[in-house]
Write a structure and sequence with these properties.
Elements (H helix, E strand, L loop, with lengths): L5 H14 L10 H17 L6 E2 L2 E2 L6 H12 L6 H26 L2 H12 L2 H6 L6 H17 L5 H18 L3 H15 L5 H4 L2 H22 L2 H17 L10 H9 L4 H13 L1 H27 L12 H21 L8 H32 L2 H14 L2 E5 L14 E4 L14 E5 L3 H10 L2 E9 L2 E8 L3
Helix pairs in contact: 1-4, 2-3, 3-4, 4-5, 4-7, 4-16, 5-16, 7-8, 7-9, 8-11, 9-15, 11-12, 14-15, 14-16, 15-16, 16-17
Length: 480
């Protein structure tokens, strides 16, 4: 007899094989993971959740909640940086996203559609890559999906459930800012189109919910201002809202960026999504039969896609919160359209659709396993900052805890495995008698002339490291 919890058990087993242990095989990579864990590491050291710092300076780029969550596994590990532990908040939330997607699909369509949606999402390349990371995108996606799950699972929402809905929205705002409202509004507008008599905005106490979210965010900003300064909080709001939306300085891409990027990052399941979209657009009878129940997914996908396409700054991760909607759309098409159409044909075996879909899933899942257990660990040697950090940490114990940075050598992003501090040093400061650190780090683009000057000023080369295609040199001031 099939257990009612069999789909959940299956999802947990498959997810555990992907993410429960494999992320321990490679270190924290790149600026984002290293910087975010460094912020969490310093939060754990000073113990003030209202004061985020990196390298001792106020960190104003992101809201506080994800760093508090990442500080918890750090604390459980005695404060030591462990790549698997630091990634567990994202991993746990990814698994919950899969479970929520299954339940939403079961509620909107059928149990089979919900399971296929979760399986499609699990094997979408961007999803399985972001799940075992110490970045913020998966956490944010969880806080987008949590209130949608609350809504979908409670047809007659009570006040307490509405409060949970807006608590999730507030947590999303404290993770990546007010942009979460784009996704929530898109879903609610879709539900309004799907069932006007349901009155979704009234159902979730929309006005009171916005006020509650605003009060929570303002309260947190006030507490942050007490721990740092109001000017720093104003800069944080300016960075999160104004600059990122109206004048982005990073990740500038053309408006068609997602048109070419999305099919790759959601392969192979973009095929049933595209087939379903084409059928809705091309066939009037098909549209009449299916479109009404798909409005929530269509709005959830299209409105954020249009919004982020208009913005100057674009990254594939920005659209990660619409991936559950894409997966639900694919799960609906596989289960409710492909399956039903094929089993009605006399020359097809009734299990043909299931066998074909399962083969595609097995291939996609195997590719994810190979990447996470073999490819990523093999890349670790040239992408890990750990050897560089450990060498600087060893030198800092002998020469002092400050490390000077020349020509964007280390930035603030690759100190997570050490206990030294970063000082920004200009080249001309090294020879004017100003107090400068005994250790300097430089991106190896200075040329022979610059290196000769450093030697004249009393520095000697110590070691070289290659990291993500760049070469870094450590120079140490000779002892007299």
């Amino acid at each position: 007899m099939k257990s009612k919890n069999s789909p959940i058990i299956l999802l947990l087993i498959l997810a555990a094989c992907l993410w429960a242990a494999a992320p321990a095989l490679w270190d924290l990579w790149g600026p984002d993971e290293c910087r975010y864990v460094q912020v969490s590491k310093e939060l754990l050291q000073h113990g003030n959740p209202f004061r985020l710092t990196v390298n001792g300076e106020f960190y104003e780029d992101k809201p506080p909640l994800p760093f508090i969550l990442m500080a918890i596994p750090l604390a459980l590990n005695g404060g030591a940086v462990n790549s698997l532990f630091c990634r567990y908040p994202s991993i746990i939330m990814s698994i919950l996203i899969l479970i929520f997607t299954y339940y939403i699909g079961r509620r909107l369509f059928s149990e089979r559609a919900g399971l296929w949606a979760a399986l499609c999402l699990m094997t979408a390349p961007l999803f399985w890559q972001e799940a075992p990371s110490a970045r913020l995108d998966m956490q944010f996606s969880f806080w987008v999906l949590f209130p949608i799950w609350i809504y979908a699972m409670h047809p007659k929402m009570k006040l307490g459930q509405a409060a949970l809905f807006w608590l999730g929205v507030s947590c999303g705002a404290l993770t990546k800012g007010p942009v979460i409202l784009i996704f929530i509004l898109a879903f609610l507008l879709g539900m309004q189109k799907n069932s006007p008599e349901e009155r979704p905005f009234k159902k979730v106490y929309f006005l009171w919910g916005i006020i509650l979210t605003l009060l929570i965010c303002l309260g947190w900003m006030w507490a942050e201002s007490r721990a740092s300064s109001m000017e720093a909080i104003q800069n944080q709001a300016k960075t999160q809202i104004i600059k990122r939306i109206f004048s982005p300085s990073l990740h500038k891409n053309p408006f068609w960026y997602y048109i070419f990027n999305l099919p790759v990052s959601f392969a192979p399941w973009i095929i049933p999504v595209a087939a379903g979209a084409f059928s809705l657009f091309r066939y009037q009878q098909f549209r009449k039969e299916h479109l009404k129940k798909l409005y929530p997914l269509v709005m959830w996908i299209c409105l954020p896609l249009i919004f982020f396409s208009i913005l100057g700054g674009k990254r594939e991760q920005y659209l990660l919160p619409i991936y559950p909607a894409l997966a639900l759309f694919a799960g609906w098409y596989i289960s409710e359209v492909i399956w039903d159409k094929i089993v009605r044909l006399p020359f097809f075996h009734p299990m043909s659709a299931g066998i074909l879909s399962k083969k595609v899933f097995v291939i996609a899942y195997t590719a994810a396993l190979i990447a996470l257990w073999i490819v990523f660990p093999l890349l670790n040697q040239r992408k890990s900052p750990r050897p560089l950090c450990l060498r600087l940490d060893t030198l800092a114990q002998e020469y002092g805890s400050n490390v000077g940075v020349l020509k964007y050598g280390l930035r603030q992003t690759f100190q997570v495995y050490g206990n030294y501090k970063i000082m920004k040093v200009f080249e001309e400061e090294l020879n004017i008698g100003k107090e400068t650190p005994s250790i300097i780090l430089v991106k190896d683009k200075g040329g022979a002339e610059s290196k000769h000057k450093w030697q004249e000023w009393g520095y000697a080369p110590d070691s070289k490291f290659k990291l993500s295609g760049d070469t870094f040199e450590i120079w140490v001031k000779r002892k007299l």
